[in-house]
Amino acid sequence: MTHHGLSMPPKILIADDEAKWLRIVSLYLSGRNCWVTTALNGHEALQKIAEDRPDLIIADIGMPGMDGYELCSRLRRDTATRTIPFIFLTARDQDTDRVKARRVGGDDYLTKPCSLERLAQSVETAMDRIEQARKIPLDRIGLSGRIEDVDLLDMIQTLELEQKTGALVLSHGERTGTLYFRDGVIVEAEIRSPAKEEPLFRLLGWKTGRFMFIPDAVPERMPITASMANLLFQDLQVLQEHEQEAEQQRGEQAAVAQEQEMPAVRQVLERLGQIAHRVRAQRPPGIGPLALRVLVVGAAKSGKSELIQGFVHDLSGSRWAALGTEEGKPLHRIDVGRVRIASGVALHLLAVRIEKRFWSVWEQCLPGSIGAIVLIGRPPEEILGHLQAFLRAREALAPALPVQILLSGPQLADREGKTGADELLAAKLAGIQPADVTPGLLQDQPVRLAVLDRLLDRWLTMN
User: Fold this and answer.
1) Which of 9, 48, 312, 400 ranks highest by number of CB atoms within 10 Å?
2) Phi/psi at 37 (nearest 5 deg)?
C-alpha cells in the first residue's frame, strides 16, 4: 500500500476485543506496508493515540469499557484528533448502527466477516482523501472565491475531512445552491432555479460562478444525515423518475431519421437498441422508461464534461436535454448528459472521478451501469494507482462491466503505432487488453464513436 504524500508507511491503530480477528487484520495490513498498533478497548486506544497519533483508526463497536461510538465521539471533539480517518469494523449490520456511526463521525462502516481486500480498499480510500486534503487546506482555498479557481469535489472532501459545520453557497448565473455540512457530513443539498433540477448533480457540475462558505449555518430542518455518495444515489433515483416524466410529456415524438445519421452514429444507436432489448427482456413488464447508464471516468479537469457533451452532440444534437430540464441545447457545462435513443429508452452519461477517495461514489454508480469509459489526459503513470483501484472496485462491485480506456492527451494520442501505449498500459492493468485502450483526441468524433462502439460491443458479447 503506497502513499506518496506520506514520508513513512501509514500508522494504523486497530481497536477490537476479539483477539483472533485483531491478529488477522493486523497481519494482513502489516503485510501491505502499514505500521500497525492494536488496542483491546476504547480506553487503551485513547492512551495509545495520545502517545503516538496514528494516521488512521479501525475500531469495533462492541468493546468493554468504552465502545467504538464513544471512542470516535471523543476523537471528533478533540481538535488534535478530529481529522483522523475512522473506520468502523463490526459484526453489527443494522441501519440504525450505520446511521449512528455516520453521526458520530465515522468515515466508513464495514461488517464482519469482511473481505480483507475490501478493508484494504477502505484504508486506501481514507488515506488518499487525507493526502489530497493536505495539498489543499481550507485556509488556502479561503471562505469565498470563483468556482473556476477550485474543484468543488476537492473542496467538499476538505470540508468533510476538517469536520466543518456550515453552508457552502454556490452561485451560477440566476441559479444559487447550498450544501449544508454538519461536522463534515453533508446533511442537505438545495438549489434555487427557474427549472426543475436535481441539486447535487447540478451543483457539482457548475464550472463557473462564485462560492462562499458560511461557518455554523444550518438548514431550518435537519434531515437524517447522508454522505455525498448517498445524496448521489438519491439524485440517480430522481433522474430515473424524471426520465419517466419526460417520456410521458414527450409522447411518441419521432426519432431523427436514420438516413440522416452517419454510419458510425447509426451503428452505435443500433447497439444501444440491442442492449435495451436484452435489458428489457430481463425486467418485469410495466416498469416504465429504460435508462442505460454509461460512466465517463477521469481525474479532475481531464475532459469528462467535454467528452459527455461530445457524445450527446454525436448521437443527437436535437435530442440533447440538460439534467432535469428540456432545454434544446446545453446552456451550462454539466457532468450529466441524456440522449433519447427511442421511445421509452434513454442513454445517461455520468461523469465520475477516478481518485481512490471516491470509492463510495463508485459503489453507487458501478452497479446498474452498462459500461465505463476511462479518460486519461496526462501520462498514465500519474494516475496508475487510482486506475488500478477503480478496476479493483469494478471487479468487486460489477465484474461484468466492460471498460474502455481513452488516452486523450495530445502527447498520448500521437503514440499510436510508435511506442504501443495501449500495450504498455494494458500490461500494467489486470483485466485490460490492448484492444481496450485507444489513443486519440476526445475532440475527434471518429475516436469518440469508436470508443463508445467498442464498449457497447463488449457488453453485447459478454451478455
Assistant:
1) 312
2) -125, 160
d(CA 351, CA 391): 16
- Count the neighbouring beta carbons within 10 Å of the beta carbon of residue 273: 12
Q: How many H helices and E strands in the chain?
A: 16, 17
Single-letter code of the amino acid located at 30? S
User: Is the preceding peptide bond at 85 cis, omega within 30 degrees of 0?
Assistant: no
The Cα–Cα gap between 292 and 276 comes to 7
Can you tell me the distance from the alpha carbon of 153 to that of 159, in angstroms, rounded to the nearest whole number? 10
pTM of the model: 0.66
Look up residue 105 and give its three cell numbers: 463521525
Closest CA to 72 of 15, 17, 118, 123: 15
What is the per-residue pLDDT across 201-260, written as a single tens digit (0 to 9) for each? 567 667 777 788 888 777 654 443 444 555 455 555 555 555 555 555 444 444 443 444
Cα angle 185, 191, 192 (rounded to 5 degrees) comes to 150
Rounded CA gap, 185 and 189, in Å?
Answer: 11
pLDDT of 72 over the 60 cut: yes
pLDDT at 359 over 70: yes
Query: What is the structure's pLDDT at 5?
Result: 43
Contact call for residues 383 and 306 (beta carbons, < 8 A): no
**Res 196 pLDDT > 80:** no
